Amino acid sequence: MKILVTIKRTPHRDARMRVAADGKSLETGDIAFEINPFDEIAVEEALRIKEAGKAQEVVAVTVGLEVAREQLLAALAMGADRGILVNSGGAAEKQELDSLQIAKTLSAVIQSEQPGLVIMGKLATDDENWQIAPMVAELLGWPQATFASKLELSEDGKTAQVTREVDAGLEEVELTLPALVTVDLRINEPRYASLPGIMKAKRKPLDVIEIEDLGGLADLGGIGQSCVRTVSYRALPAKEKGILVDSAAALAAALKERKLV
Amino acid sequence: MTTADVLIIVGPTPSSPRKIDRAAIGFGRKATDCISGELDLLLLGPAAETASSQFAHLGARKIYTIGHADLANYTAEAYTHAVCDFTSERNYRFLGGSASSATRDYFPRVAARLGIPMASEVLEIDQLTADQAQLVRAVFVGNLLATLSISGPQILATCRASAFEVPAEEVATESPVEVVTISHALALAGKQFLSLTEQTSDRPDLTEAEIIVSGGRGTRGAEGFQLLEQLADQLGAAIGCTRAVVDSGWMPNDLQVGQTGKVVAPKLYFAVAISGAIQHMAGMRSSKTVVAINKDPDAPIFEIADLGLVADMLEAVPQLTEALKG
Ligand SMILES: Cc1cc2nc3c(=O)[nH]c(=O)nc-3n(C[C@H](O)[C@H](O)[C@H](O)COP(=O)(O)OP(=O)(O)OC[C@H]3O[C@@H](n4cnc5c(N)ncnc54)[C@H](O)[C@@H]3O)c2cc1C
Ligand SMILES: Nc1ncnc2c1ncn2[C@@H]1O[C@H](COP(=O)(O)O)[C@@H](O)[C@H]1O
After folding, report:
1. How confident is the model at residue A94, as a pLDDT?
2. What are A140-186's pLDDT values in tens digits?
3. Residues of chain B with confidence (pLDDT) below 70
4. pLDDT in tens, A174-215
5. What is the pLDDT of residues A57-108, one digit of tens each?
6. What is the arithmetic mean of pLDDT over A32-53?
7. Which of A181, A260, B125, B131 is the most exposed place for a label (fewest CB within 10 A)?
8. pTM
9. Chain B residue with Cα closest to A97
10. How far apart are CA B71 and CA B53, in angstroms?
11. Which domain holds residue A62?
12. Does domain B211-325 have CATH number 3.40.50.1220?
């Protein structure tokens, strides 16, 4: 079986983004980028399934600009076998791709790759859209299990049993493959790429496909228009500076005085 | 042609409206105010029909319920199918709901099936016309607000419950209820629900609570949490925690507050032995008053605390509980 994982290039998890003077873009000059933390977890999960002998190949896919090659290489360095960069350069100059367009692009790649399992992050930490994975599953007509904290493939490799972290607690579902799973934080602890891993990554296949050349999009009704654009950013309103009290008794008094308790 | 009407979707439907359901209706009202339309409510799931009377005084023009057998156990696939069957014959301008683990799971499927744009976890509706919307939402771990422009005759959006409140007074007229029957199967063959293990607690739910007492890694587990529970008992508060605490197995996952946990905005939030990582703050920074207790005066949590106490929680928390008794 082949497993396909999706990768998004995102600003470092602890970066504090600032709005540029035009109010429309972000200052990214000094920002380090990384694989979206949840996608790193997705890669790790795919590698563990392969190492357990239940998959033969792990393919990492990203939709983005040429710079996203860096994150694909990072996934290859962790151990993924092959990378696909769908270059949205031309499209991105004209328009911002929205979630549904990225979902369609990923679905077209999945249809041509025909993996048995797609593993994605439960969200991308930059836009925090929480959208693309269920959209992909719907476009493919596949079953999904989002927010997985445990993923187990059956011995015959036909089904997957997934534990999901939901608002009320933990839910268990069974999916018949092919299926799509999104991973949550607690499913695993991603490995660091080793030095030999990093060296090997440079020799692994990494295909670049121009988005315009992506066969299969037509079957999905074409990539369509971008309907969602970010027109401006602003910082959160500044918070008034709080006060420090010097004892638990003073804290209790302050809470009572403010009628909070 | 779409109408100027708004549909708020609740599902799986609880036995009575929660804070997040009322907020969804507040969100829907905001939308109808912009386009002078009417608000309908769609309740999905086994409890939909019996619970409909509990939703009848929230100002909806009409309440529709779908209680199909395939919705008895939640699956994204069946809920998506039900919503799409319902909306395909009715041209709502705006489909909405509250962000939850369920709507994060099935709303994007609905958007993909209908081929319409979606906005997640909206904080403000700036503008809504027949074919354009401007919505504000948080991005980059809650550090920035982005204004989205969304084009098209129909959109789907979820709101952050903390951002929309419904007026407390209830509407006198009762919304009429229509039970919608769908005669075909809704479930997808490849998906099987197996079980749901719910965390039960006598305490208020995190997303409902007025006061939350939240603990971090510095509680060192049971020892510290026992003290936090005593404080929570004294205040009638809910208990929350950080990712580090759940990862350590000290508390169940449904109590995690943050970017990847629950987003809360109570009147009072106690952050005890919590450093204040941006991912945690993303889930609680809209709280009205934040109290931080931490032994490190440089902990980032103090940057957003209204009241701060630099102290060892093992000593300070029992003292605080005691002082609040008087
Ligand atoms: C993609 C991603 C998503 C994440 N999502 C979330 C999320 O949803 N929610 C979340 O919480 N985190 C999340 N995190 C983790 C987050 O980055 C932090 O690691 C986590 O919040 C730290 O938890 P903490 O404050 O309990 O622990 P620490 O950072 O270890 O802080 C412990 C604090 O306790 C204090 N302390 C120690 N002993 C005492 C004492 N006796 N008395 C008083 N104070 C004491 C210390 O001074 C310190 O400030 C996420 C991280 C990533 C990468
Ligand atoms: N440009 C992209 N290329 C590949 N995968 C993506 C891209 N954007 C988002 N994803 C995937 O979709 C998941 C959810 O993202 P989102 O719905 O944007 O929160 C991420 O974890 C990624 O795996």
Report:
1. 46
2. 999 999 999 999 999 999 999 999 999 999 999 999 999 999 999 99
3. 1
4. 999 999 999 999 999 999 999 999 999 999 999 999 998 998
5. 999 999 999 999 999 999 999 999 999 999 987 655 445 799 999 999 999 9
6. 98
7. B131
8. 0.97
9. B117
10. 20
11. 2-257
12. yes
- What is the pLDDT of chain B when averaged over all its residues? 96
Decide if the complex's ipTM is over 0.95.
Answer: yes
Q: Which ligand has its closest atom nearest to the C-alpha of B104?
A: 2
Tell me the CATH number for domain B6-179: 3.40.50.620
CATH code for position A23: 3.40.50.620
Using a 10 angstrom Cβ sphere, with 0-12 exposed, 13-18 middle and 19 or more buried, the burial of residue B123 is middle
- Provide, as residue numbers in chain A, all residues whose Cβ is less than 8 Å from the Cβ of B325: none
**What total of structural domains would you count in chain A?**
1
Nearest-angstrom CA–CA distance, B107 and B84 = 10
Chain B residues lying within 8 Å of A232, measured CB to CB: 146-147
Three-state SS letters, chain B: CCCCCEEEEECCCCCCCCHHHHHHHHHHHHHHHHHCCCEEEEEECCCHHHHHHHHCCCCCCEEEEECCHHHCCCCHHHHHHHHHHHHHCCCCCEEEEECCHHHHHHHHHHHHHHCCCEEEEEEEEEEECCCEEEEEEEECCCCEEEEEEEECCCEEEEECHHHCCCCCCCCCCCCCEEECCCCCCCCCCCEEEEEEEECCCCCCCCCCCCEEEEECHHHCCHHHHHHHHHHHHHHCCEEEECHHHHHCCCCCHHHEECCCCECCCCCEEEEECCCCCHHHHCCCCCCCEEEEEECCCCCHHHHCCCEEEECCHHHHHHHHHHHHHC
Instruction: Quote the percentage of chain B above a pLDDT of 70.
Output: 100
Q: Rounded CA gap, A163 and A232, in Å?
A: 38
Hey, are the CB atoms on B139 and A146 less than 8 Å from each other?
Answer: no
Query: Would the CB atoms of B254 and A235 count as touching at under 8 Å?
Result: no
The one-letter amino acid code at A92 reads A
How confident is the model at residue B169, as a pLDDT? Answer: 73
Least CB–CB distance from B117: residue in A98, A248, A249: A98
**Of A6, A88, A104, which is best to mutate to test ligand 2, by the most ligand atoms within 8 angstroms of its C-beta?**
A6
Q: Where in chain B is the domain with CATH 3.40.50.1220?
A: 211-325
Ligand in nearest proximity to the CA of B217: 1
Q: Which of B75, B253, B304 sits opposite A239 (nearest CB)?
A: B304
